[in-house]
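FadR family transcriptional regulator: structure, please.
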Amino acid sequence: MIQKINRLSLVEQVAAQMEQLIEQGQWKIEEKLPPEMELMEKFGVSRNTLREAIRALVHAGLLETKQGSGTLVKSASVLGAALKRHVKKSTMLETLEVRFSLEKQAAKMAAERRTEEDLTKLEAIVLKTKVASEKEDIDQFITSDIEFHKAIVQASGNQLLIDLYEHMTDLLYSFVHDFLDMQPSFQLEQGLHLNLLDAIQKQDQASAAMYVENDMEVLKDYILKMTEE
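Here you go.
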């Protein structure tokens, strides 16, 4: 028996469709939502239903309503919005510990599950970081460094782990930039890339995890020095 759709479930359906548009990148972060009339026509709903759906996404942290600016996209996903709220309440060290816990597990899984395509991708990124280092191109080096670590997590084959790591890394971008904007860390990261790649190629899970732990210790020392200054 087909049940009549009630108003509440219609609001949820509209909110879900809007969330999908955000996650797919059709509505980008800091971008203003289309006019109300356009959205009402797009979703085939009333003004009240649309506004309730928007309020639900504002509450979830995906949207933000600003006086005089309208409604803007604030986060790319509910998961990202939730993580952002928690990260704001945590210390930098706590946040990095979570990120490295994810990365350590991902490195072990990548060593076990990596494909030839994964290895080819990692080798290409390592080459890019080497070129960026030789040119002393810090921005390209940082971009390639983040790309390398994300590629390892993607090689784990665990989609939830991939999503969590993506959001954690995006939230920590400015810190990573400051840390890598030092010549010693340039060289350290290059060495880490080569060691990690070698461990993953050999499917050596223990070594892959160990190299991530070593990287974490270096970052911990950096944070402690920052707090002491």
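Notes: The chain has two domains: 7-76, 80-228.
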